[in-house]
Amino acid sequence: MTSPADTGVFDVRAVRADFPILDETVGDAPLVYLDSAATSQKPRVVLDAERAFLAHANAAVHRGAHTLAAEATESFEDARAAVAAFVGAAPENLVWVSWAPCGIRTHPPN
């Protein structure tokens, strides 16, 4: 994705090109999605990473004793460490939170 730091200019076309859903139209107008508080759209790089994980490594994190679960757990914790480093926190202080119909579920490290 192009950022203002790369070019000094915010390139709207380059950003839109990173999000496949923004190729859609509503009537005759390009789709504009402003409901990110409810659901964020994902850029191609995220969709590709999710697709690769689901196709080749999908398993229960922190719940299985088999190879796929161990690999999924390692990927999960590597992501926690990367995000923690990015925001300047210790990995054990970063908690993944996801919305669920029955309430909030958290995924703290074991």
Question: What do these coordinates show?
Answer:
The chain folds into two domains: 1-41, no CATH class; 57-110, no CATH class. The chain has a two-stranded antiparallel sheet with strand order 1-2. A two-stranded antiparallel ribbon has the order 3-4. It is extended. It is built from four helices and four strands, in the order H-H-E-E-H-H-E-E. Helices cover 40% and strands 13% of the residues. This is Aminotransferase class V domain-containing protein. It comes from Microbacterium kribbense. InterPro entries: Aminotrans_V_dom, PyrdxlP-dep_Trfase, PyrdxlP-dep_Trfase_major, PyrdxlP-dep_Trfase_small.
Cα end-to-end separation? 34 Å
Cα gyration radius (Å): 18 Å
- What structural class do helix, strand and pairing data support? alpha+beta
Oligomer: single chain
User: What topology, given as strand order, has the largest sheet?
Assistant: 1-2
Which stretches are low in confidence, meaning pLDDT under 50 for 5 or more residues running?
none
Number of strands: 4
Shape: extended
> Count of helices?
4
Number of domains: 2
**Average pLDDT reading:** 85
**What can be said about the biggest beta sheet?**
2 strands, antiparallel
Beta-strand portion reads: 5-15%
Q: State the helical fraction.
A: 40-55%
Compressed to H and E, one letter per element, the order equals HHEEHHEE
